[in-house]
Design a protein that fits this description.
By secondary structure, the protein is an alpha/beta fold. It is 48% helix and 12% strand.
């Protein structure tokens, strides 16, 4: 059954690929991005051309996850145009690289603003509608860094992704009784096919970087090369988009709580299996096992 999908950060990378894949699968997709009339006008035109060429329902909508007003307006646009919203995908994110000490607290806060608080703004705009209809799906695009291998010089991004994962886990239980399902899709380190490393931010303050460079010369290049070496030859970034399409197309109530897409196998899937089992066991022990799956009405005590 065709669904109406809103996906954030859909101008490039995982987001753009996923928006196109979902549209090809027959869904109405709103590819959200900011600055649609200026900086991203070309990407808007590309999406429109793709929709025309492939005969799919791929649309774009202005959405800056740093603004509650923008999130509210984007959801209102979707509802006004299509009359419904079935699936919300949290994909927008920002990566920064460099020695952790070199980042000011304000720079770390900015990373959290995009990767964590941005999801909260969009949730506050969209969830009232999903709750009212007593059905829906929220997909969170996480990172294996939350529980897997964590190379240095990426701490602000890793910390933000871990915070987002914790938020997703709590939301899953809190939304279950509204019939809203949660899936966390966990990509590994794809060093080609995305622009994470190319567009990532860096510390503005350079005073301590020289000291780290003396001890860790060329570290980020080494990390990128070695991550690329770990990935098998067929590790295409489109695997992430395919996994999200599979989640969306799975019948309501039977979707997986967490899906790993990690060709390099950095250990996240193994650790997450334990953590998710502990979560399930604990909720069962305290009599809240009904929160492990979506249902429109609370079960009798």
């Amino acid at each position: 059954m065709s669904k109406t999908v809103l996906i954030t950060g859909a101008g490039s990378g995982f987001g753009a690929l996923t928006a196109r894949a979902l549209a090809r699968a027959g869904h109405t997709v709103y590819a959200a991005m900011r600055n649609t009339e200026r900086r991203n006008a070309g990407r808007v035109a590309d999406a429109r051309a793709y929709a025309t060429e492939h005969g799919v329902d791929l649309r774009t909508v202005e959405l800056d996850v740093l603004s509650q007003e923008s999130a509210d307006a984007a959801v209102s646009t979707v509802l006004a145009e299509d009359g419904r919203l079935d699936v919300l995908i949290h994909n927008a994110g920002h990566m920064v690289t460099g020695p952790t000490e070199a980042f000011t607290p304000e720079e770390l806060a900015a990373v959290h603003d995009t990767n964590v608080l941005g999801t909260q703004r969009v949730n506050r705009a969209a969830l009232p509608h999903l709750r009212a209809q007593r059905k829906g799906l929220v997909v969170w695009v996480g990172s294996t860094s939350t529980r897997g291998g964590t190379p240095p010089y990426l701490a602000p991004y890793f910390a933000a992704k871990a915070a987002m994962d914790a938020l997703a886990v709590s939301y899953a239980a809190e939304l279950a009784r509204f019939g809203i399902e949660t899936s966390i899709v966990v990509p590994g380190a794809f060093t080609s096919g995305t622009n994470h490393f190319a567009t990532g931010g860096h510390p503005a303050e350079q005073t301590v970087i020289g000291d780290y460079e003396a001890r860790y010369a060329g570290l980020m290049d080494q990390v990128a090369r070695r991550l690329a070496d770990l990935a098998p030859a067929d590790a295409d970034v489109s695997l992430v988009a395919d996994a999200i399409v599979t989640v969306v197309d799975t019948p309501h109530g039977s979707r997986p709580f967490r899906v790993h897409v990690d060709p390099a196998n950095d250990g996240s899937e193994e650790v997450s299996a334990v953590a998710d089992r502990v979560r399930s066991d604990f909720l069962t022990r305290i009599g809240l096992d009904d929160l492990l799956a979506p249902h429109a009405r609370p079960r009798s005590a």
